[in-house]
Design goal:
mainly alpha, 2 domains, two-stranded antiparallel ribbon, binds fe (ii) ion
Length: 284
Amino acid sequence: MIQEQRDAKGNTPFEPGPLEDWALSYVLSKSLDFKRSPPPSIKELGHMELPIDCRPVRPAELEVTSAKPKSVKQGALLSVKKRAEVVHKFWHHELQAAELMAWAFLRFPEAPDELRLGLIRIARDEIRHMGLYETHLQELGHKVGDFPVRDWFWERATTCETIVSFLAFIGMGLEGANLEHTERFGSWFRGIGDVRGAEIQDQIGREEVAHVRFATRWFKYYTGDVDFERWCNELPPPISPLLLRGKKLRYDLREKAEMPKPFLEKLEAWQPEAAHDPPPCSGS
Ligand SMILES: [Fe+2]
Ligand SMILES: [Fe+2]
C-alpha cells in the first residue's frame, strides 16, 4: 500500500517493510474486520526516514459525532442499553489507542527500533481489548456501530510534535488514568451484578500496567528522569493533568509502572487554574 517516496535528490529513503505497510493500512482502513485483526508477527522493520502523518478512516458502521459525552453514574448502568453504550465507548477508546500506536510508529520513524516495535506490540494488546469489549457488547444485545463515537483521543494526540509528547500524553497520561478508571468501572459493574463486565475491567486494568511502564521508561530514556513538571510541559495544550488521573490515584499500580512516588504525589495534588476539556470516562 505504501508508495515509494523519493527525496529532492531522487533518492529513496523509504523502503517500507510489512509492519510499516500494516500500520498505514490499519489507520486508513475502511474495514471494521481489518481494524479487528492483529498486526503481523514480524520483528524486522523496513527502512523509513520520512515521517508519515495521517488521520484514521472510519468504517461505514461507525457514526462519528463531535458531541461531548455526559458523565455516567453507577445507577445508570442498571439500564442494559446504557451499559452497552458505555462498553461501546470503551471499545472505541481501544480502537483509537490501537490506531494511535500505528500512527506514532509512522509519525516518529527516528525513534529507536525497540520503541517502535513496542508500539506495535501495544497495538496488538489494544486490538485484543477491543475484542473483549465487542464480545461483551454482543452479550448485552448490541453491536459495534449501535452508538456514535467521538474521536477525542485523535483530536488531541495528533497535535503531539514529538515522541516524548506522545508518550507523556497517551502512555503515561490516558493509559495511566485508565488504571484508575478500570478499577472504578470494575466495581460499578460488579455492584450491579455484571460479573463479566467487571472481569473485563479487571483484566484490562492489569494489562495496562505494562503499557504505562513502557511509556514511563521511554520518557525517562529521553528526559533522564520522570519529573512531573517536565511531564506537564510535554502535554499537548490544552491537556492538563486533571484529565489524566482518576478520582483516587492507584499508587500501587502506577508504582508498578515505575512512576516515582514524588511524581504521583504531585499528580494527585495538582489543581487546575482554569476550565479545561471534560475528562473522558475511561482511557485505553
Ligand atoms: Fe493500553
Ligand atoms: Fe487497552
